[in-house]
Design a protein that fits this description.
It is a single chain. Helix 3 packs across helix 5. The chain has a 6-stranded mixed sheet with strand order 6-7-8-3-9-10, sandwiched between helices. The protein has a 4-stranded antiparallel sheet with strand order 2-1-4-5, with helices on one face. Helices cover 40% and strands 23% of the residues. The chain is globular, with a radius of gyration of 19 Å. The chain is α/β, with parallel strands linked by helices and 255 residues long. It folds into 2 domains: 165 residues, 3-Layer(aba) Sandwich (Rossmann fold), CATH 3.40.50.300; 79 residues, no CATH class. It starts with a strand and ends with a helix. The structure holds adenosine-5'-triphosphate and magnesium ion (MG).
């Protein structure tokens, strides 16, 4: 079976720093795979390369059978990869609904010019976008807050809104960078249930997360990065007991 996502020897340098070194990674359709590692290990950089923000210095990225290395972020998004960011990226002054509508944008057929000139088909498309937006707001539990300004949402709700916006693009693969960061236990529990619903919809999930309990309870596989190198890959139980992983985390706490 061919992988949905495959990174082959992916390497990225920032000046003299090797942020990710010769990283091989595979993700099958329907899986939930976590990428973990100490601060600065290169996890967000991996997401930035997959989503086209940085071109890799070496190596290849394949998605759904296509070479997407060096493609622009917008084109990668239209192929079916959506993401959230480690720090919340929302249009804080817009409503919850408008934030999600923006996420639907890449599926639009008539485009900005069509919308401005009110071409036929625009109205029908707006209706589809509205329906899709309401559907994803339902999935993340924010349907009752659609008119609220994004800024007025609680922190955990803002993080869920980001996921809603990513879902609005109807992705095959969802990249989540520390989705549980800063959440209280109740918010984490809601997030976990939500991710299970998203997975049940057939969406593949790649997750970067520091909360080990969270990672271990949702992931099929966990890969571990340390100083840009993959040091372990396995089931949550295997990785948790791996001496190299334990040393990497202890080193990051004491050093
Ligand atoms: N645009 C950039 N320019 C220069 N260096 C960068 C850039 N982006 C990341 N780095 C460096 O690359 C390394 C990996 O950073 P990255 O953000 O991927 O780590 P991370 O594993 O996501 O860490 P954290 O858990 O703290 O989010 C770090 O040393 C970081 O300073
Ligand atoms: Mg990061």
């Amino acid at each position: 079976m061919s992988a949905l996502l495959e990174l082959k020897g992916m390497t990225i340098h920032f000046g003299g720093l090797i942020a990710v070194d010769n990283f091989d990674f595979q993700l099958e359709k329907g899986q939930v795979v976590a990428l973990i590692g100490p601060n600065g290990a290169g996890k967000s950089t991996v997401f930035n390369v997959i989503s086209g923000i940085y071109p890799p210095t070496a190596g290849k990225v394949f998605f759904n059978g296509e070479d997407i290395t060096n493609m622009k972020p917008y084109h990668i998004k239209t192929r079916g990869i959506a993401r959230t960011f480690q720090n919340i990226h929302l249009f804080k002054k817009l409503s919850v609904l408008d934030n999600v509508r923006i996420g639907c944008h890449c599926r639009g057929r008539t485009g900005v010019l069509g919308a401005l000139t009110r071409l036929p088909g625009v109205k029908a498309e707006e209706k589809v976008i509205l329906e899709k937006s309401l559907e994803v707001l339902e999935i993340v539990g924010l349907a009752n807050k659609q008119e609220e300004t994004a800024n007025n949402l609680a922190y955990g709700e803002q993080r869920r809104l980001e996921i809603a916006r990513a879902l609005a693009a109807e992705p095959l693969l969802l990249l989540l960078d520390e989705p549980a960061a800063g959440m209280n236990p109740n918010e984490k529990k809601n997030l976990m249930e939500m991710l299970k619903r998203i997975r049940a919809m057939g969406i593949t999930i790649m997750l970067v997360e520091h909360d080990m309990k969270f990672v271990m309870s949702i992931s099929d596989r966990v890969d571990v990065l340390n100083y840009g190198q993959k040091i372990a890959s396995g089931t949550p139980a295997e990785v948790q007991n791996d001496p190299l992983v334990i040393t990497a985390y202890l080193g990051s706490q004491t050093g």
